[in-house]
Design brief:
The complex is a heterodimer of chains A (about 325) and B (about 400). Chain A is an alpha/beta fold. Chain A has eleven helices and six strands. Chain A has two domains: about 250 residues, no CATH class; about 45 residues, no CATH class. In chain A, about 35% of the residues lie in helices and about 5% in strands. Chain A has a four-stranded parallel sheet. Chain A has a two-stranded antiparallel sheet with strand order 2-3. The N terminus of chain A is likely disordered. The chains are: A alpha/beta (about 325), B mainly alpha (about 400). Chains A and B meet through β5, α6 and α7 of A and β5, α9, α10, α11 and α14 of B.
Chain lengths: ~325, ~400
């Protein structure tokens, strides 16, 4: 029970993610593009739930047997203190919206994850609600050649993924980890020995002959997904900008180092590149598990400095590039 | 990662708890969960912490069942061997359990117990796991036969009579209980003959239905009124591509060299390296780290489409100078027959006259005859009716 109530979302980007406001926001944006600034989301899923009483809400006045082993430190906001293991984030709190009331009472891992990932809907045995990323992909206009939603390396397996919306609204998964030396998202580029003219002829042949299921009046989910992915694949392959965005080797070494040469750091670095290139929603599955029933403090001593460096660097990097807005 | 720290079913026996306080043991609770899901089609996860919300299981049921596995010592010397002065450490069963669970309601220690059934009295020469197995395979067991029958049915029909297929529960009844009862009865009567079970399911009209729908059944997904369209499973996709292109599957030698000509479907290991391991991954082969049939994904994804469209390794299989396509193009001068051959080999049907004409036109306009047929094979591999089982 305790564990689940500790489940928390680290929220970046201020897109009004908590609660049911997202579709409303997107709708408003679609209606009046000039009035609403375009916003993008980098969503970090920390499986297991980081313990906020050891991070953002230290409760220093509670009884010593319940209190965190760590000490609170001052932040840029007078009177607000956070964990001593997050000194860089402490200097940036005035740029964040920290929600301390996100909570649920589901006493089981999987439905709990379904709830937190399922766009704010309680899990239900008869219907899978979609993830935030699938809702955004569904509700925003897609831009040719650029996937609307990307997951690094994939959507959290304990979540509902695109749920009842269907496979077509899943994020594009990089599959590989940008911290690996030979990281590469496969099949984004046109192969060397196939030129554009030949590719177009092939495509025409495929379109003219692939009519097998046309007679179905109800196109099942698998076919709707394939239809969509065929369109997406054609346009992505022809987009050098998308290919460049995924090419982390183009990022200066100094910047890569600033994020931390670890899985989380490099995933966030790639997320920034993707948002710059026009991806609207990036999902990061955090590599470190936060199911810290056992050895909580030892594990936090390992995990928190990594988070502190990577997330603070992301915020500063986005700010330097004019991509960070707090309103 | 070292052998002992890998956390997957194929390294299952190494999945030990060892701390200074406890002897090296297998976690009985995990074994109980896995055995229940795999062999009984019953999900006990909820009953670990509280009464199962949509089934009959209490915490006492769960922990009693877990005690069935708590008598298995995986280290230390079997007392019988010790008495015979054979000082050999190894897996053995003892009347004294390695760990004991108490009933959370009464705080009384629990004995080993069949799921929803009688206690097992563990003595010398009584292995509770053997008792469990005899119970599972007894004529009146309500779970084992039904779980296996339902899983085979789900494999072929795309949907279990009980769905999800690993979730027999009081609140999750079968859609067609008579069918499930009859198949289970027959399966038990024929001493769990899997071959017979597969044959019975494959010869049903339900399995043999057409995927084409009519006005009355287009929306049906649960009454077997037409065949459900499904993407090929990961192993099927890898093997089908290998068969179509006439190139061997490629897995690395990390865990020993796979036998030549092996199929992906025959590989038991869950962790593999090599190029086709990537293909298994994107087509949703489970890593076997979760205790759930749902770990296997049958959803389409952009990564799959990009692979079939555009991956160098996939194109390499089509263009392979030793591959099937090059051989056919060299050996067959009759273009019409060559197109027929490619259709038969890829989609197991003859091309329609329109498909033949369209393909021949493409080959005529291509840079070379070989290039033209490479494109034809590429288009066949990228068609919905190749990757969707229908």
């Amino acid at each position: 029970m305790l564990k689940i109530s500790r489940r928390n979302l680290l929220k970046l980007g201020g897109a009004g993610l908590a609660g049911l406001t997202l579709p409303t926001l997107l709708h408003a944006q679609a209606q009046n593009r000039r009035a609403t600034r375009t916003k993008n989301v980098i969503f970090i899923w920390q499986q297991g739930g980081p313990p906020h009483q050891d991070m953002w809400d230290m409760k220093p006045d509670c009884a010593s047997e319940n209190r965190s082993e760590f000490s609170p430190i001052a932040t840029a906001l007078p009177g607000y203190r956070i964990c001593e293991l997050m000194p860089r984030l402490a200097r940036l709190v005035q740029r964040m919206t920290i929600l301390r009331g996100v909570n649920h009472h589901i006493p089981d891992h999987n439905p709990g994850s379904m709830y937190m990932l399922g766009s704010g809907n309680p899990p239900n045995p008869t219907i899978f609600h979609p993830t935030w990323s699938a809702v955004v992909k569904r509700e925003t206009e897609s831009r040719p050649g650029i996937p609307t939603a990307v997951a690094i390396p994939s959507e959290p397996s304990e979540g509902p993924n695109s749920g009842f919306l269907g496979a077509a609204w899943q994020s594009f998964a990089t599959q590989a980890d940008p911290n690996d030396r030979d990281f590469r998202v496969r099949a984004l580029a046109m192969p060397r020995d196939i030129d554009l003219a030949r590719f177009e002829r092939r495509r025409q042949l495929l379109d003219d002959t692939s009519r097998c299921f046309d007679e179905l009046t109800e196109r099942p989910d698998v076919l709707r997904g394939l239809d969509r992915f065929h369109q997406d694949a054609y346009s992505i392959i022809q987009s050098p900008a998308t290919r460049r965005a995924f090419d982390v080797e183009q990022e200066p070494t100094t910047v890569r180092d600033r994020y931390g040469r670890n899985k989380l750091g490099q995933r966030l670095m790639l997320a920034r590149r993707l948002v710059e290139a026009g991806v609207r929603f990036v999902t990061i599955s955090e590599p470190v598990g936060w199911d810290t029933h056992e050895a909580n403090f030892r594990r936090l001593r390992e995990n928190l400095p990594v988070v502190d460096l990577a997330v603070s660097t992301l915020i500063e990097d986005l700010r330097d590039r004019g991509l960070w807005t707090t309103r | 990662m070292g052998y002992a720290t890998r956390n997957s079913l194929d390294f299952f026996h190494s999945n030990l708890i060892h701390t200074r306080e406890k002897p090296r043991i297998i976690d009985s609770k995990k074994v109980a969960l896995r055995v229940a899901t795999t062999f009984l089609g019953v999900r006990l996860e909820c009953a670990q912490c509280h009464k199962h919300p949509n089934d009959r299981w209490s915490q006492g049921d769960f922990f009693g069942f877990a005690m069935t596995f708590a008598h298995t010592h995986i280290a230390g010397v079997d007392p019988k061997l010790k008495a015979a002065k054979v000082n050999l450490s190894g897996v053995h069963v003892q009347p004294t359990p390695v760990e004991t669970f108490v009933d959370p309601e009464t705080q009384q220690p629990l004995s080993a117990r069949l799921l929803g059934g009688a206690n097992i009295v563990v003595k010398d020469d009584v292995d509770p796991r053997k008792e469990l197995w005899q119970w599972m395979t007894s004529k009146d067991n309500p779970y084992f036969a039904r779980a296996l029958v339902n899983r085979v049915w789900a494999f072929y029909l795309g949907r279990g009579l009980i769905e999800p297929a690993d979730s027999q529960a009081a609140a999750n009844p079968a859609t067609h209980p008579d069918v499930l009862d009859e198949l289970a009865r027959d399966f038990i009567e024929h001493k769990f003959d899997l071959r017979r079970l597969h044959r019975r399911i494959l010869t049903t009209l339900a399995y043999q239905r057409d995927w084409r729908t009519n006005a009355t059944n287009a929306k049906d997904e649960r009454h077997y009124s037409h065949r459900l369209l499904r993407r090929l499973d990961a192993e099927q996709a890898v093997d089908a591509i290998a068969q179509v292109t006439g190139t061997p599957v490629r897995f690395s030698k990390r865990f020993g060299t796979p036998r030549e000509g092996i199929k992906a479907a025959e590989l038991a290991l869950s962790r593999m390296g090599g190029d086709d391991a990537y293909v298994l991954q994107i087509f949703g082969r489970p890593l076997r780290v979760q205790n759930c049939d749902c770990e296997r994904s049958g959803a389409a994804s952009l990564s799959q489409t990009l692979y079939l469209f555009n991956d160098e390794k996939l194109l390499g299989k089509i263009h392979d100078p030793k591959g099937r396509l090059k051989n056919l193009v060299d050996a067959m001068a009759d273009d019409r027959r060559l197109v027929e051959e490619l259709y038969l080999w890829t989609l197991t049907r003859y091309p329609t006259p329109t498909e033949i004409d369209r393909s021949l036109k493409h080959v005529r306009l291509a840079g070379s005859r070989l290039e033209g047929y490479q494109d034809v094979m590429w288009s066949l591999l990228n068609r919905h009716d190749f990757v969707v089982n229908h």
